[in-house]
Structures are given as C-alpha cells and as structure tokens.
TrEMBL record:
SMART domains: Ami_2. Pfam families: Amidase_2, Golvesin_C. It comes from the Bacteria. PANTHER family: N-ACETYLMURAMOYL-L-ALANINE AMIDASE AMID. Keywords: Cell wall biogenesis/degradation, Hydrolase, Signal. Its EC number is 3.5.1.28. The lineage of its organism: Bacteria, Pseudomonadati, Myxococcota, Myxococcia, Myxococcales. This is N-acetylmuramoyl-L-alanine amidase. The keyword Cell wall biogenesis/degradation applies. It catalyses: Hydrolyzes the link between N-acetylmuramoyl residues and L-amino acid residues in certain cell-wall glycopeptides. Residues 1-24 form the signal peptide.
Amino acid sequence: MSTFRNPLAAAAAALVLSACGPQAQQPEAPPAETPSQPSTDTAGSALPRELDPLFAQAAQEFNVPAELLKAVSYTETRWQMVVGEAEFPGQQPAFGLMALRGADLEEGAALAGVTVEAARTDALSNLRAGAARLSQLATDAKVERGDLAAWAPVVAQLSGITNPEAQAEHVHRGVYAVLNQGAVALNQDGSVAASLEPVQVEAKFERPQVRAMAAGPNYSAAIWRPSPNYNSRPTGSTGDPSMIIIHTCEGSYSSCWSWLTNSASQVSAHYVVNEGGTEVSQLVNEANRAWHIGATYDCSLNGSKECWLNGVSANHFTIGIEHGGYASQTSFPAGQIDASAKLSCDIARDNAIVKDSYHIVAHGRLQPATRTDPGPNWPWSTYISKINSYCGTSTPSGEIIIDSNSANNDASKAKFSTTGTWTDGYSAGYYGSGYYYAATEAISAPATFEFYLPTAQTRTVDAWWVEGTNRSATAPFIAYNASGAEVGRVSVNQQTNGGKWVQLGTYSFSAGWNKVQLSRWTTPGYVVMADAVRVR
C-alpha cells in the first residue's frame, strides 16, 4: 500500500501505485464458468517503481515545468495509470497518468511521436503525450514558460472543463493547491515512487466566485449545485427510492459536477463526492428522478432481490452518488469512502433503504453490458460497515467477514489468498466485488480465508458462493485452528443455495490466525467457488 505524506496527499492515502487491475465488474455468461488461466491485465504496462525520472524526461523534452506536469497528473489520477470508460454520453474515456482523452490524447500522441495505444497504456508515452500537448497549448497561448503562474489558463484548457466556476475550482483547488502543498507517494517497501516539493505560486486565473453556497436540500453537508437534468419520479411504489447506486465519474470531481449540471449533457446524479472526501455536491433533490443509470432493473443481476421491480427503469427508484475517480483505480482514498458512507447513511435513513450490498449497489452490477464502475477495488465490506456504523446499525459484535477481494477486508483480522491457479469471476449473485473459481482435481491448492481471534473461541462459520450447474456438489471446506490442527470439515453443494450465507458448522478455534480452506480435491469435471466466509 502506498502512503502519502502531507495534508493534501493524505486524502489519497489508500491509493496503491501499481498496475491498475482489470476493470472486471461485468458478469460472465451465466450461470457457469469454465476453468481457464487468469486473465491478462488490460490496464497497460506495470507502473514503474520510480516515476520522478519519467516526469523529468517528459518535462525536459517538451519544455514544460516538471512540477506542473506532476501536479496536473496528481490532480487528475493521483499518479495512477487509469483506463477510463465513458461514464456519460459524449464523454471520451481517459487514459494513463495524465488522464488524456479524445483529441488531447490523439494530438499529444502525434506530437510525442508515439502511437495512441502506447499513449494509453505506457506510463512514459502517456507522460510525453501529455507534456507535448501542454507545450503546444502553451505555445498557442504565448505562455512565459518559466512562470508557473502563467500556465494556469493552459491547465484549465487541458482539463476539458468548460464551466467557468468548475475551471477555477480545478485550477486553484486542484492543480495549484497540489503545487503549493506538495505530495509524496511511496512504494510498498517505503521507497519513493513520486514526489513533488511544495512551490508557493498563485495561479494567474480568475478565482472561484466568493459567495455563500446554499446547502443541499436533502443533505446539509452538501453544496447545492442544481442540475436541470431531472424529472419527476413516477407515482406509486416503483417511484419510491429503494436503492442507492454507486458510480465513479471517470474523471475529476470538478469536471464531473460541471458535466452533470450542463443541460446539454442530458445526464445527472443526485450527488458527487470529491476525491478527498472534503466536499460533496448535491445536484438533484432526492424526491426527483436523476438521469444516472441507463438500464431497466433485472433482479438476476442483483442476487434475485426486489424482483417485483424487473423491467422498471432503474432511475425511477434509485438515488445516484458519483465519485471523483475511475473504476480502474487500484484503491480509493479513505476520506472519500468515509464521506460517501456518511452520505449513504443519511440517504438510507431518510428513505428507509436497506443498508446492504443489494440495496447500495454498484452501477456496473445493474448495467453490466456497458459499465463497470465503481470497479473491482471499491471496498464494499468496509463501505457497508461504515454506513451501518454511522447509522447506528453496525455489524454484530465480533462478526468477521473475509471477502475474496482483499481490498474489502480489515487486514488486522481478515485475509484471503489462493494457491495454484484460480480465476476471478463476476457472475451475478456474488458477495462484495467478485469471487474466484478453480477446477476440481486431485490437488488441494486451496483458497484460504484467514481470520484473527484474540482468544480461544467457539464460532459458527458460513460461506457464500454463486450457484451454477457446473459447480461442485461436494465442495470441501476445511477449518483449522491457529496451530494448524483441523477442527472440522464439510462438503457443500454449490449448484444450489447461491447468493446467500450458508452455514458450514460450528467449530472450536484458538487464539491467533485461524483459517477456513476451500479445497479443489473432489470429483473432477466441476469448479469450486471461493467468494466469502463469515465467522460469527
């Protein structure tokens, strides 16, 4: 886990500087998977351990201040190689450390002498394309290149934001705030991946309007930035808010609320949460229907919950929350998750929405053909737990859930790992944000769910899986205490009872790290499903 030292960068403390994982949030063809090798990372080349030399090379080559290049990149992506998708109609997807998109990506690649594909997927090529495009814009604007403050209009132009207030926010509270405060990103071993020393500079750009910002009509902690893109909810139960949809903007916070309040975009959301969790904008009253999800509801995509809503436009009964950031990012800032959880608690409490992952749900789950957000690394278990905590309905005391996506686990008491060949899957009905499956054969090569107990305790263990006809009818779960002694085993039929907790048994565990393993050693010709384990 990368860490960031300074007030601004603390907002991004959860971000990992590594290759972005695949954007997989889409179900495979249900109901079954077939064993295969793990999929190739589609997010581009691995992010180099040292980014500073790359920034320096690109900056020098195209006569752009290196600190400016770093600040633009940090503001847009938190120094991650992103692979964007088009979250909104008319929006071009963003790529790489610089979040280049559309004409800026193509023109920057041409100026840098690299292919568009290289500018999308290779860190140095992306930085060179971004620097080349900035340089071209600076030439056109006759910028005095040694004057950092004079680059502000060019920074605004590259952002693609057209709303003057959002432009000013992006320049002053984004890029130039990073310049003034600095940032440091560390690799997992503590070495420096990228750094920006503070530079005291005042952007030569009109500041955001100084005016009293009205509070949101439903959430007092929000700024009211009304969007014209909404209509009335239908009368009757199908129009009552009963779900919250979690989105990522596939861009920065400022560009997001700017786009969603533009009448020409014909899209909106009820709320947008900024990257650091320091600001929330409300755009549409919760009583009204925002235009944030282009799908009719299909309960088979959502654990067969609320099937009476099948065929109904999901906008009718949902409240949408956008988040500055990308579905492809490796993790999300803790401050953003915390602010969003407080907001979701408020929405759920006021609208009597069930606070679980079937009613507070990913955009990509309900619209899998064209969307993956908020992506595989949204920390669902932490998020739902925080929502319940803020609403005073916390997870039962002592209960531990170990998800197959480690990003969802509290590392102090829950771990997941695999041995041998396991493939990630996303068919409907999974817990958290996906699962792993593997072929059955005469080899253990297990998936391991570990949990920490401070004292010896007797606990009940449950498991969650996605059912299907090619699943094993004798999937072997084996429980071990902290000393490695087997304390129980059971075989379960994973062809049925999917999408819910199924009790495995009650066992005596010891103090320390205990574990439950799902073995592959059973009747060949099937797959076993490692999704989540609950200890209660």
